[in-house]
Design goal:
It is a single chain. It contains three helices and 20 strands. Strands 2-3-4-5-14-9 form a six-stranded antiparallel β-sheet, with no helix packed on it. The longest helix has 8 residues. The radius of gyration is 22 Å and the shape is elongated.
Length: 300
């Protein structure tokens, strides 16, 4: 398994190029690259780009996701098509202490007023747990996968092997939609793996990661038509009747146009793509770009 020092920052870039029969569209302003890494809509690193509800932080050419309690996690992957990011949790404090490095912030705690939540793709290994965890609907039994992890992973073995209780669970659902919590009363340490194949030996497990997903954005809010003219072509500033909030207005797409929340455009319903190219690649923190291209013919 890769050490924390060897983990490269990866960004999954999915660029859709459509050969239209006629016309063109103009997207909302996308934020500039953070170092070598593109920042796709709706993510925002600056006040004048992206959607301000979807803030991430660019610092010294690397992207960070800020959670509550002053905790921050490096972003290793972004997939704008599935609306998911993967952040790297910090692991253990040291080989001598079975405690999460983000213990002081109580682990990963998301603001439930923002459009991010923890996906159901994460397998959590919780360590240094109390007997209170035995009453919960998670696997803290002797056959839990956590015991194999602690035996086989050197740092966990050094820090946590002498402690009797560990647990394993999957994220998803209301109990942990916005948090992976650590605290002395329950479990003091955790690691997380995305889409873990539990049939593999620990040595073949992926790097540490927590997958976070975002809700698709609505059209941008506006006060006057000039706001829409600057932000979203082919839209009109109208009352948002869906929200039920008096006075709230949005840049709603004109007739024969439809809001595309992935690219941030009012897409014409009249333009029929004749050829569809899906290009994707991975950008690592050394600036290497590995590109692939798939081609599909679409019939309407």
């Amino acid at each position: 398994m890769e050490t924390m020092e060897k983990i490269a920052v990866h960004f999954l870039v999915l660029t859709v190029v459509l050969q239209w029969t006629t016309g063109f569209v103009v997207a909302m302003k996308v934020c500039p690259n953070c170092g070598p890494t593109p920042v796709p809509f709706p993510l925002s690193t600056q006040p004048d780009c992206g959607n301000q509800l979807y803030k991430v932080r660019c610092e010294l050419g690397k992207l960070w996701f800020d959670a509550l309690n002053h905790s921050s996690y490096p972003i290793t992957t972004i997939n704008p098509i599935t609306q998911r990011i993967i952040v790297r949790p910090p692991g253990l404090v040291s080989k001598n202490t079975c405690m999460a490095a983000d213990f002081r912030s109580n682990g990963i705690i998301l603001d439930d007023n923002l459009p991010f939540n923890i996906s159901g793709s994460n397998t959590i290994i919780a360590m240094n747990c109390t007997s209170e965890m035995l009453q919960m609907a998670i696997n803290c039994s002797s056959n839990s996968l956590c015991h194999e992890y602690i035996r086989e992973e050197p740092m966990a073995a050094s820090a946590c092997s002498s402690l009797p209780t560990c647990c394993q669970y999957k994220t998803g659902g209301s109990p942990n939609a916005y948090r992976i919590r650590v605290r002395a009363q329950r479990c003091s340490a955790y690691v997380s793996f995305v889409n873990l194949d539990t049939s593999l030996p620990v040595s073949k497990w992926p790097q540490l990661g927590v997958e976070i997903e975002w809700a698709l954005p609505r059209e941008p809010m506006c006060k006057v038509q000039a706001d829409c003219d600057g932000d979203l072509e082919n839209s009109i500033c109208l009352p948002d009747t869906e929200s039920g909030i008096d006075g709230l207005r949005r840049c709603l797409c004109k007739t024969v146009f439809q809001w595309d929340p992935i690219t941030g455009i009012c897409q014409s319903e009249l333009f029929l793509p004749s050829l569809f190219y899906l290009s994707y690649g991975i950008i690592s923190n050394d600036g290497v770009w590995n590109k692939r291209k798939l081609k599909f013919l679409l019939f309407f």
